[in-house]
Design brief:
Elements (H helix, E strand, L loop, with lengths): L1 H6 L2 H9 L13 H9 L25 E2 L5 H16 L10 E3 L8 E3 L2 H10 L8 H11 L7 E7 L3 E6 L1 H14 L8 E2 L9 E5 L11 H19 L3 E6 L6 H13 L7 H17 L1 H16 L2 H25 L4 E2 L9 H10 L3 E4 L2 E4 L8 E4 L7 H14 L5 E7 L3 H13 L13 E7 L2 E2 L16 H17 L7 H21 L7 E2 L2 H4 L7 H16 L3 H5 L11 H10 L2 H11 L3 H13 L1
Parallel strand pairs: 7-8, 7-13, 8-9, 13-14, 15-16
Antiparallel strand pairs: 1-6, 2-3, 3-5, 4-5, 10-11, 11-12
Length: 612
């Protein structure tokens, strides 16, 4: 960290503050007005319409190639080999060609690995046109277009791997287009024409804190992963609706409202006080039968719309909401709140529909949905008649498909909820909610699970007292550590610049430390590791970004105005390697969108910095 301060001049830190701070910030943001405007109107249409009748859940393809001022490199190679395959075997093989980067740069830039699979398919059909996969691969190479501006070389290795090396002229053209289309500092990535890309509108459900409780480190993962996925989707031109499914309904509010009434609470209390009240109310609920009865009565009043009770409930929600907004402001998150209460009036109608379709059945007094495979049922109404998480999730699913008209719904929660969402998805498919009347591909559903945040002791990350770590305190600590390190050096920054730099570096470090890990695995939270300027950290990325910003700051508008493809000269291997890496951004974003793994973009960004 100390060497970072010594290495980056004050001017560069100022430049860094004006530009993106992590890998996710290279992606464009969507129109919030469009997002909020369309979603707010949904309040007027809460009653269900007729369900779709067909019930076959088919996942929509998300395989459109991407473009950054031109086709992505992988898409270019795939297109060329598809034409060659048609020339060699007209109409005989329908195959999604496997195009990858060469693991050994000495062999080439990209590789087509499909000859073996195609040969096996021909052999199965009794076609003996080729003696082995290698002879087929050699025929494909001969069928490639003779264009010096496309490939510098194409050769066959091993049993049939085809390695291609791009011509410098192609790389120069693509780099020039990328620079031209990104002159404002933002990546421009768009879908190329592809009829299989059926996704137009996506709902991403993430963050989802609980009212009357502070956001903790677990919410960090959902919030950051969800936001990154949203930016990637928007980057490729998909309308993306961010929804915050906050916990703002249920029996806990009966406890809280009753306890607050007993304590004659002040109108203006802090979230920490509210949390304390919540814990106290839970103890009373578990130990005091009279209090429990009054709490249950308060829930009934709340659900019945009692003016006084609803007013107090709204006050509690607003206090929590203000606290949440402070954190979202820090993390640069814009998300539309759609809490459990929003879907409450839909639940009876949705459950009635499931009963009519014989999907939900009575079992031991509860309403349950049994899956075809063995395992516990999804309880969607408790034996006492009360609703639960499953009730709300089913209603939310229906509303997002039928009112929001989502083509794809993504839920970002911990991996422990995988079975729950699997059951909800299964119920939605059997009910026919996912199929569209116009014959379009069915609504796609994904649960984006993530692992735990662990402490350096190998246990779940908690405070010394054993409580979950408040997210606000965690972010503040990261900024404080950056401020202390910067202040201890002669950085040449004034107090305000120190604060700005500390905020940028601290928040970026926390975000990136989470994102660069595979979301499916647990990761160890370490301030020292995330603030290290060496290795795959945000601090290293910021250092490289500052160097690049210093170079760009010396370029004038006239320099860019006269910039032509002839100015891109890739005479050195390192220049070619950098050009290749820059042009792989569309493939990195495509990988993120297809696999819903933000770490793919982080891997790319780190690779770009190392190559630079």
């Amino acid at each position: 960290m100390a060497s970072l301060v010594a290495s980056i001049p004050a001017r560069s830190i100022q430049l860094c503050g004006r530009h993106s701070v992590t890998a996710v910030d290279v992606l464009n943001r969507g129109s919030l007005r469009k997002q909020f405007g369309s979603a707010d109107r949904l309040r007027e249409r809460l009653r269900p319409r007729a369900f779709h009748r067909r019930a076959n859940a088919v996942r929509a393809a998300v395989a459109a190639p991407l473009a950054a001022g031109g086709d992505s490199l992988r898409a270019t190679v795939k297109s060329v080999f598809a034409e060659a395959l048609t020339a060699v075997l007209p109409g005989e093989v329908q195959l999604d060609l496997n195009i990858t980067e060469c693991s050994n740069p000495k062999l080439g830039d990209y590789q087509c690995n499909s000859a073996m699979q195609i040969f096996a398919e021909l052999k199965r059909k009794g076609d003996t046109s080729f003696s082995n996969p290698r002879s087929l691969a050699e025929a494909l190479v001969k069928a490639l277009p003779e264009n010096d501006n496309l490939f510098a070389s194409a050769s066959v290795a091993g049993p049939g791997f085809i390695n291609v090396t791009f011509a410098p002229a192609l790389l120069a053209k693509q780099v020039h287009q990328t620079v031209r289309n990104s002159a404002d500092g933002k990546a421009k990535i768009s879908q190329t024409s592809d009829d299989t890309f059926a996704i137009q509108r996506v709902v991403v459900d993430f963050s989802s804190p609980n009212i009357a409780k502070e956001m903790h480190v677990g919410h960090l993962r959902s919030t950051i992963i969800g936001e990154t996925i949203c930016r990637a989707l928007e980057c490729v031109g998909i309308e993306t609706i961010r929804l915050n499914h906050v916990g703002d309904w249920g029996t806990q509010f009966g406890m809280l409202l009753t306890h607050l009434e007993d304590q004659a609470e002040a109108d203006d209390f802090k979230i920490n006080d509210l949390q304390g009240f919540y814990k106290e109310s839970k103890v009373r609920f578990d130990t005091d039968d009279a209090f429990k009865t009054r709490s249950q009565a308060a829930v009934v009043k709340l659900q019945a719309g009692d003016t006084h009770t609803v007013g107090k409930w709204k006050d509690i929600c607003e206090i929590s909401r203000r606290e949440f907004e402070e954190i979202y402001e820090l993390l640069d998150i814009n998300i539309l709140e759609r809490g459990e209460s929003f879907y409450n009036s839909l639940i009876p109608h949705v459950l009635d529909e499931l009963v009519e379709k014989n999907i939900a059945v009575q079992s031991d007094g509860a309403l349950c949905i049994f899956q075809d495979k063995e395992g516990p049922p999804l309880i969607c109404r408790k034996s006492d008649g009360g609703f639960n998480y499953a009730s709300t999730d089913l209603a939310a699913m229906w509303q997002r498909v039928n009112d929001v008209r989502a083509d794809w719904i993504i839920y970002v929660t911990d991996v422990g909820q995988n079975k729950h969402f699997e059951a909800v998805f299964d119920a939605a498919a059997r009910a026919g909610w996912l199929n569209k009347d116009d014959g379009a591909p069915s609504v796609r559903l994904d649960h984006v699970g993530f692992g735990l945040v662990m402490g350096e002791d190998g246990k779940r990350f908690r405070t010394r007292s054993g409580d979950t770590v408040p997210l606000k305190a965690l972010l503040s600590e990261a900024q404080s550590r950056c401020f202390e390190s910067l202040s201890s050096r002669n950085s040449g920054l004034d107090p305000q610049q120190l604060q700005d730099a500390s905020r940028i570096m601290g928040l970026a470090a926390v975000k990136y430390a989470d994102l660069h890990n595979n979301r499916l695995t647990n990761y160890t939270f370490s301030y020292d590791r995330m603030l290290d300027m060496k290795g795959n950290t945000a601090i290293y990325l910021l250092y490289t970004h500052a160097r690049i910003s210093s170079i760009l700051a010396r370029a004038t508008e006239q320099d860019f105005a006269s910039f032509s493809v002839d100015d891109v000269v890739l005479s050195h291997e390192k220049e070619k390697a950098l050009a290749l890496t820059i042009l792989k951004l569309p493939d990195a974003v495509e990988s993120l969108v297809q696999e819903l793994l933000p770490s793919r973009l982080c891997d790319y960004t780190y690779s770009l910095c190392v190559t630079f």
